[in-house]
Design the sequence.
């Protein structure tokens, strides 16, 4: 299996994160997967944004959950970009997507879109929330899922298997060779995030990771030649 490079919120190191502009750039750069984040708006739209509040990435203030899609559309998400919804990303790029459920309540809405648009082969669903992974797996038969963690205990492999995940997406600075070997022995692949430097890329390859999530398109080029 080749080493995967996953565009983090598109290519957020060079474009406004989680915007159509960022996703298109990631596709043009040849990223194997494009990662994005999902929250529900007040009126139930799948808003593509990382934080629960709009403050950091837009010119607005307040929780996403307290804003309608119309209100979110009025915000500038960087360089004149608007906050997209998941369906717009599906139409803007043809690349495989890695959709992260940030708000557990978004799982059911995401499942409806995936069933309606037959996205099992195109969209991998990931989350820090075990319950979100378990729910999407129940609602969308055959969906590929991954458990995300920044800090974890020794049971992280067991947690992933318990909810039917086939991949771990972990903080690259805390991954150990022992964990990678255990995950591989249990049939799980392991991706490290965020890999933005040559040192982190060499670490990822040295640990035998299956891929890296990165903010920068040049990591894809470098990854092909880093042993």
Sequence:
């Amino acid at each position: 299996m080749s080493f995967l490079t996953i565009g983090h919120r598109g290519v957020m190191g060079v474009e406004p994160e989680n915007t159509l502009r960022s996703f298109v750039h990631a596709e043009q750069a040849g990223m194997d997967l494009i990662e994005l984040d999902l929250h529900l708006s007040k009126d139930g739209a799948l808003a593509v944004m990382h934080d629960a509040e709009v403050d950091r990435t837009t010119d607005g203030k307040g929780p996403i959950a307290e804003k309608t899609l119309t209100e979110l559309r009025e915000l500038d998400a960087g360089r004149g970009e608007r906050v997209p919804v998941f369906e717009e990303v599906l139409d803007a790029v043809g690349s495989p997507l890695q959709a992260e459920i940030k708000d557990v309540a978004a799982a059911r809405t995401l499942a409806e879109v995936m069933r309606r648009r037959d996205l099992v082969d195109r969209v991998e669903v990931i989350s820090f929330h075990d319950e979100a992974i378990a729910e999407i797996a129940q609602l969308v038969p055959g969906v590929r899922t991954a458990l995300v963690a920044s800090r974890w205990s020794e049971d992280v492999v067991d947690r992933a298997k318990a909810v039917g995940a086939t991949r771990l997406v972990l903080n690259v600075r805390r991954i150990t060779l022992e964990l990678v070997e255990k995950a591989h022995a249990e049939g799980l692949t392991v991706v490290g995030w965020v890999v933005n430097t040559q040192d982190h890329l060499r670490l990822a390859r040295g640990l035998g990771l299956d891929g890296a999530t990165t903010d920068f398109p040049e990591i894809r080029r470098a990854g092909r030649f880093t042993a």
About this structure: The chain has nine helices and nine strands. Residues 106-116 form the longest helix (11 residues). The beta strands are 4-7, 33-40, 46-48, 97-101, 123-127, 144-149, 167-171, 189-193, 211-214. The chain has a mean pLDDT of 96.
